[in-house]
Amino acid sequence: MLKHLLLGGGLAFAAAIQPGPLQAFLLARAAATGWRRTLPASFSPLLSDGPIALVSLLLLSQLPPSFHHLLRVAGGLLLLYLAGVSFLQWRRPAGPLPVVSAPRTLVEAALVNVLNPNPYLGWSLVLGPSVLAAWRDSRTFAFALVAAFYGTMCLTLTGLVLLAGTRLLGPRARRALVAVSAAVLAGLGVSLLAGGLLRLAPP
Questions:
Q1: Given 16, 40, 173, 185, which residue has the most CB atoms within 10 angstroms?
Q2: Which tens digit of pLDDT belongs to each residue from 127-176?
Q3: What is each CA distance from 194 to 70, 130, 189, in whole angstroms?
């Protein structure tokens, strides 16, 4: 159970910290209009990711288990790549928050996330195979992984909104968070890659 909770929570934390369209919208809106008006948009992944998750799981469930192991290897490589990108971002000086037009409603924030390719990649290569592997062990493990992922995702986005709205999330703090995200992604990437390769190895 613990490994599934750590996997879901770690992936969600790293995903929420990674600079991207949804995070840019949330931070810009919180800085412009305050955290109270922005806070509901922190829960937009709960609206946007449902159809993506269902389609990914339905498609993946039709594939043989050996292909799932290949996807876990690909997912591990993807996480290592993202860790490298985060490390390069950490090495660059952090600039001011991007100037973008922020979504005005929870639904608009969810649409921003639907147009973001990251949830599709995440569910196809990382979360989907991991959830199916957990399901084969226990349904409870699978539900725990998903709950840990979205619980951590929403809490982390909420924390970012609060920090941005109260002007506490400066360039140095954002740079430090990117460094932590890079370390988490690297650790999870190595874990998924090693697990997939071990399962692919002949007995």
A1: 185
A2: 888 898 888 889 999 999 999 999 999 999 998 888 877 766 666 766 67
A3: 11, 13, 8
Domain residue ranges in the chain:
2-200
Q: Can you state the percent helix, strand and coil of the chain, rounding each to 5? A: 85, 0, 15
For 2-66, give the DSSP string: HHHHHHHHHHHHHHHHS--HHHHHHHHHHHHH-HHHHGGGGGHHHHHHHHHHHHHHHHHTTS-HH
Q: How far apart are CA 185 and CA 14, in angstroms?
A: 6
Both tokens of residue 49? 């990711």
Mean pLDDT of the chain: 78
Check residue 102 and give its pLDDT.
Answer: 46
Is the Cα dihedral 132, 137, 138, 144 positive or negative?
A: negative
pTM for the complete prediction? 0.76
